[in-house]
Amino acid sequence: MKMREKFVETFRIIYLVLCAALIIGTAAGFFMLSLDSIDPNVKMEMLSISLIVAMISLALAMWVKKLIVKPLKHILMNKISHDIKGFRYIPDAGLPVQFFEDSGFIRGYDEYCSDNFITGKVENGKDFIISEILVKQVILSEDNTRSESILFDGIFGVLDAKKINTFYMDITPDFKNKFANRVFADFKKMLGNKHIVRLENPEFERYFEVFSDNQIEARKIITLEFMEKLLEVRKNVGKNISIIYVGNKIYFFIQHGVLADTRKLLLFGPSEKVVKETSKLIQNISEAVELL
Questions:
Q1: Which residue from 6, 60, 113, 158 lies 20 to 30 Å from 169 (Cα-Cα)?
Q2: pLDDT > 70: what percent of the chain?
């Protein structure tokens, strides 16, 4: 283990100890309040000590977390970099907001944040760039009270398209309502929605809705092989996926997707299990990219 990794691992353990101290201090405070047999003055003194310990632990834990999160992500990504060609990771960088604007995925948002930038190359030679994004709508009341609504929180990626077209596909995994999804899709087709692409694959349509302003071009892209592989990717990723073809770009979104899970890194570090899970996720994304 390199010196830097040892340093980060030491501080990660300190972080966990501080979190434990925070929990114990808070629990001790509530326990003191529940005791009736202790003198009130002693109870208040012990309660004050417990709260001070908890507050100091919280402040130190937040400081240590801020100190080690980025190094932990770098160590994690370095361990999986050999699995992806042209792999590059920049934790503080993200996809420019103009890409998001051009996709037309969400209108009427107020804030866009992006970080954990990753770029690589899949087997078919395509370059891909992905990043985590957070999109919010901000509402100000009459008394200037600010409230926020999260419109999207997940992974956003961009590819160059060979053909210029406009194509939108919304893939919504729903493991519990397969039959309902199928009936709903049939109902909308009965209504003659001109944007729905009719496909001859009931299993695919149990989970996926395909919309396009060009039925012929859409069917050229959505081949039988495409549908089968996308079903497999959907199963592996297990998240809501949206894909948009517009102009000469392909944009894809994975709702609630996380490229580097901060909570797991803080709890377990860049362990073999965390490395394997993260590598598998990025490999699944790259497999999806190969289909586009």
A1: 113
A2: 81
Separation of CA 82 from chain center? 22
The type of residue at 53 is V
CA torsion angle for 265, 271, 273, 279 (degrees, to 10)? 70
Q: How many domains does the chain contain in total?
A: 2
Amino acid at 141: S
Backbone angles phi, psi at 105, to 5 degrees: -65, -45
DSSP bridge pairs for 85: 121
Residues 59 and 90 grouped into a single domain: no
Residue 251's CB: how many other CB atoms inside 10 A? 24
Domain boundary among the residues 40, 56, 80 is at: 80
| Chain centre distance of CA 192 | 35
pLDDT tens for residues 117-126?
Answer: 888 776 666 6
**Helix pair angle (40-80, 3-34), 10° resolution:** 150
DSSP symbol at 25 = H
Amino acid type, 268: F
**67 and 198 part of one domain:** no
HSE of 6, CA atoms in CB hemisphere, 13 A: 3
> What is the span of the domain harbouring residue 42?
3-80
Which of 208, 211, 119 has its CA nearest to residue 159? 119
| 181 and 52 in a common domain | no
| Predicted pLDDT of residue 104 | 83
